[in-house]
Amino acid sequence: MNRIYLDNAATTPLSPEVLEAMMPYLTGRYGNASSIYDTGRDARRAIDDARKQVAGLIGARTNEIHFTSGGTESDNWALKGIAFARRSKGNHIITSAIEHHAVLETARWLETEGFDVTYLPVSASGIVNPEDVKNAIKDRTILISIMAANNEIGTLQPAEAIGAIAREHKIPFHSDAVQAAGAIGVDVNAWQVDLLSLSGHKFHGPKGTGALYVRSGTRILPLLHGGAQERNRRAGTENVAGIVGLGKAAERAGMMMDENAEKITRLRNILIDGITGAIPHVRLNGDRTNRLPNNANLSFRYIEGEALLLHLDLNGIAASSGSACASGSLEPSHVLLGMGLAAEDAHSSLRFTLSEATTHEEINTVLAILPGIVDKLRAMSPLAS
């Protein structure tokens, strides 16, 4: 059976070009970048090149890129590093109710440390109102953290408008761009962000790699203490092969972004229109157009999303019921609840996320198989009677 992979928001397959770039640093070119002899200098040059590639993807300067182990570390570092660096100026943080758990759980932990956090509501399509951000600002606000694109529903947030408000009030602005970077244009200067998180495995790079953009002049405390790596901001021997892979993936994503976005958006729309046209009682979650090119999140009333996933898997189709990081939780999606969905509709959601490798034939196969699965499960459901 040829399997169809439609869970690219969870992780993307490693690009062959990225693997090829990494291989020398997994074998013969194994130097520690902190060493001064030739093998170490070779590793340092490779890291410097990767830093330029990542900076190029988001319009940053090379010295503003700090390599991490991924989006979770970058989000934790941004919130904790800024909160404690600016604690003498205040203790209030603004974020949204639909952030990734890496932001929400960090914010909740900061509350136990004496910080005050405002969790802004979102519209029915999952969008933060910039006016709500503005109205939430207090004299003691020290950080605003709003994601660029939601990982579950794909909705794009008004980062540029929020960045302008943050800049006007001289408050650092962090954006979790883990789902956005590599998929849509990200410009740290147009958005006026001071910090931005990204993760390599979301755009065909290796897992365990990521970066935190920190605008020059932004004071932030380290999350990890030890050595002097990353300009004394992030201790630990550099993952040279992973960083090289992240850099190559960033370069590749930037070069292919427009072409990929056009193709993937077209296939996503075929999928959404095909499902909503053929299956009754289906709701598209998130804004119809203001969303990531690859994301289609839908609720199938009267059915458990997990049951749908299992039946799709039996037919060789991989999808998701929401965030992979929350997999196994029996709680309905906090994102869908935050948009106003009832718990039973949130439980019935399914997320399909495409990639550059997704084909029209695969989408047609899903559209041929899915209605029969839905009919079968609804026939068994007491909720549908």
Explain this structure.
It contains 13 helices and twelve strands. It is α/β, with parallel strands linked by helices and 385 residues long. The protein folds into two domains: 137 residues, Aspartate Aminotransferase, domain 1 (Alpha-Beta Complex), CATH 3.90.1150; 238 residues, Type I PLP-dependent aspartate aminotransferase-like (Major domain) (Aspartate Aminotransferase, domain 2), CATH 3.40.640. The strands form three sheets. A seven-stranded mixed sheet has the order 2-8-7-6-5-3-4, with helices on both faces. The chain has a three-stranded antiparallel sheet with strand order 9-10-12. α7 links the parallel β6 and β7. α1 packs antiparallel against α9, α2 runs parallel beside α9 and α10 packs across α13. The longest helix has 39 residues. About 1% of the residues have low confidence.
Secondary-structure element series? EHHEHEHEHEHEHEEHHEEHEHHEH
What's the N-to-C terminus distance?
Answer: 35 Å
Beta strand %: 5-15%
For the biggest β-sheet, the strand order reads: 2-8-7-6-5-3-4
Query: Which overall shape is indicated by the principal axes computed on the Cα atoms?
Result: globular
